[in-house]
Specification:
The structure is a single chain. This protein is globular. By secondary structure, it is mostly helical. The chain has one domain. It has nine helices and two strands; from the N terminus they run H-E-H-H-H-H-E-H-H-H-H. The protein has a two-stranded antiparallel ribbon.
Length: 219
């Protein structure tokens, strides 16, 4: 796969669906990773024809599994936002070199991907083309792209010390990306639901902070 100087992958195939089983795709990816660390640019090149949506699913794994990759919430969230914008406007996304050259230690990444194989194999049993009006056509793609972008924004919030604050938006991204990848409208719906639940959860946290502050101030 070629890239531009700004780090944007070329080619229009990156948003298309795939028939490769997700667990198998992750196994192939693990088998190609070498060395002590890898940049996001190199990871995307290794992902290859699986494309940008599969890249999004990989980026959600650290927030869903009991294996941590330190300091990735902001970077991964920004990449997901830019991919979502690209899907919304049906264009190959601009991915800045500063983001794509961010390196990850393979001692953190590989265990995450290995646990991701188990998760992917469980989810694969439920994935199949259905309710395809939610995954086909310009309007559906635009709405799904906007939802993916907004979920990436939610993932940016610096609230990792609060339970579920990264997990909920990561679930939204995961289900949206998988639904678009394999034309499963039900997965897309679950992605929207996870996004709404995240907004409600964050709203509840904000309300609790405001009420707590008022209580402390005796208002």
């Amino acid at each position: 796969m070629d890239t531009t100087s700004s780090g944007s992958p070329l080619g229009g195939s990156h948003f298309s669906d795939t028939q490769v089983a997700l667990g198998e795709a992750l196994r192939r990816l693990i088998g190609t990773i070498e060395g002590e660390q890898i940049t996001l640019r190199e990871l995307l090149v290794l992902i290859g024809e699986q494309g940008m949506l599969f890249f999004c699913t990989v980026l959600t794994l650290p927030f869903l599994l009991p294996v941590s990759i330190p300091g990735v919430s902001t970077v991964f969230g920004l990449v997901i936002i830019l991919i979502g914008i690209g899907i919304t406007f049906n264009r190959v996304p601009w991915l800045p070199a500063k983001l794509m050259d961010r390196s990850i230690r393979n001692e953190h990444l590989v265990p995450t991907l290995e646990k991701g194989v188990q998760l992917a194999e469980r989810m694969q049993r439920w994935l199949r083309p259905r309710l395809m009006r939610l995954t086909s056509g310009a309007f559906a793609n635009r709405m799904n792209g906007l939802a993916l972008t907004f979920s990436g924004v939610l993932l940016l919030f610096p609230l990792s010390f609060i339970p579920f604050s990264n997990t909920l938006p990561a679930l939204a991204v995961l289900f949206l990306a998988l639904g678009m990848l394999q034309r499963d409208g039900y997965f897309v719906l679950v992605g929207y639901l996870a996004m709404v639940v995240t907004v409600v959860y964050f709203g509840g946290l904000a309300l609790a902070v405001v009420l707590g502050g008022q209580s402390l101030l005796g208002i």
